[in-house]
TrEMBL record:
Lineage: Bacteria, Bacillati, Cyanobacteriota, Cyanophyceae, Oscillatoriophycideae
Gene Ontology biological-process annotations: signal peptide processing
Substrates-to-products reaction catalysed: Cleavage of hydrophobic, N-terminal signal or leader sequences from secreted and periplasmic proteins
Residue ranges occupied by any Peptidase S26 domain in the UniProt entry: 11-169
Species whose genome carries this gene: Euhalothece natronophila Z-M001
Name this polypeptide is given: Signal peptidase I
The enzyme's E.C. designation: 3.4.21.89
An example molecular function term from Gene Ontology annotations: serine-type endopeptidase activity
Length: 184
């Protein structure tokens, strides 16, 4: 049976655009989305105007790990302070751990955390605090210039949008976002 080529080209174009829009919405909502870096809070790892791919599927099957860079919706405390945009920070403290920042060092359950990715040692004191279930402590890599958990508290797991995986802009910095390895 011959194919019907009599369909109006405008109708075909509209069908194609509608299908494309639905697919794009589905991918952005459930799989991955692009984000940009608006501030210096993640220097030196991420620079202002870096463009990243944020993967959203992984946390449906597992939990965030220490060292991962995550994008999250503003917490209730941040919203009370007038912040509504998403944030990007590094997971430092996991549920059930006790975190303290003292003398320029982050301590997890009393043990210092080796951090070769930060801009400078933190010049503030924080904690000790024990992280509740299903919540995290996140800090910017530019510790002294980052609005992060040391200023406003915990990030609920439900607020986490996804994990930064790939930098796709600028071209001279394209690549995966490396995560540090910590001794067990």
């Amino acid at each position: 049976m011959p194919e019907n080529h009599n369909e109006n080209p405008w109708v075909e174009t509209l069908k194609t655009l509608a299908i494309s829009a639905v697919l794009a919405f589905g991918v952005r909502t459930f799989v991955a989305e692009a984000r940009y870096i608006p501030s210096t809070s993640m220097l030196p790892t991420l620079e202002v105007n870096d463009r990243l791919l944020v993967e959203k599927v992984g946390y449906r099957f597992g939990s965030p790990e220490r060292g991962e860079i995550v994008v999250f919706e503003a917490t209730e405390e941040l919203q009370r302070q007038g912040y509504n945009d998403a944030f990007i920070k590094r997971i430092i403290g996991l549920p059930g751990e006790t975190i303290e920042v003292s003398g320029g060092v982050v301590y997890i359950d009393g043990e210092p955390l080796a951090e070769d990715y930060i801009a400078d040692q933190p010049e503030y004191q924080f904690g000790p605090v024990t992280i509740p279930d299903d919540q995290y402590i996140v800090l910017g890599d530019n510790r002294n210039n980052s609005l992060d958990s040391h200023a406003w508290g915990f990030v609920p797991a439900d607020n986490i949008i996804g994990r930064a995986t790939i930098r796709f802009w600028p071209f001279d910095r394209i690549g995966t976002i490396e995560e540090p390895s910590y001794p067990e």
